[in-house]
Amino acid sequence: MSLVLDNSVAIEWLIAADPQAAAARLVRRHDAELLVPSIFWIELIYVFGKHIKRGWMDRPFRDQCLRRLRRFDPLTDLEAAAPGPALDRALSLGDQTGTTVYDAVYLELALRSSSPLATFDAGLARAARSLGVGVIDA
């Protein structure tokens, strides 16, 4: 089974005191391979940049967080990274649920892979549930 990992959960894991343990427990609990859309990495770097700018983390800690996450070897899905059916579905899902296209990419991936979505984003969780997608709020 796969688990679609939203950035809201990844950020919480990575900035926690023991992110390895928290992430490992979630993956073990759900016996899941982590699955992320291609935009996940750009979003993650963007959030880290905001944290650095605000003085909440420094670049060495950012780099350490990236190394930690890479050890979990999330599978990066590229289907919605370019024009085509997956991106078209994401756009339609965004219109249908009122979510941003960023969130709709996560929804599309969860639907296409028949995987639950791990998110702390209440709006994304609501949209996922309305589509019949399982939600895990870690």
Helices and strands in order:
Layout: E1 2-5, H1 7-15, H2 19-30, E2 33-37, H3 39-53, H4 59-71, E3 75-77, H5 85-97, H6 101-113, E4 117-118, H7 122-130, E5 135-136
Parallel strand pairs: 1-2, 1-4, 2-3, 4-5
Helix pairs in contact: 1-2, 5-6
Describe the overall structure.
- The protein has one domain (2-136): 5'-nuclease (Rossmann fold), CATH 3.40.50.1010.
- Helices cover 61% and strands 12% of the residues.
- It is built from 7 helices and 5 strands, in the order E-H-H-E-H-H-E-H-H-E-H-E.
- A 5-stranded parallel sheet has the order 3-2-1-4-5, with helices on both faces.
- Strand 4, helix 7 (122-130) and strand 5 form a beta-alpha-beta unit.
- Helix 5 (85-97) packs across helix 6.
- The model has no long low-confidence stretch (mean pLDDT 90).
Number of domains: 1
Which assembly state applies to the chains in this document? single chain
Relevant CATH superfamily: 5'-nuclease
Number of helices: 7
Low-pLDDT parts are none
Query: Any idea what the radius of gyration is?
Result: 15 Å
What is the CATH C level class, in words? Alpha Beta
Question: What is the CA–CA distance across the termini?
Answer: 16 Å
In round numbers, the mean pLDDT is 90
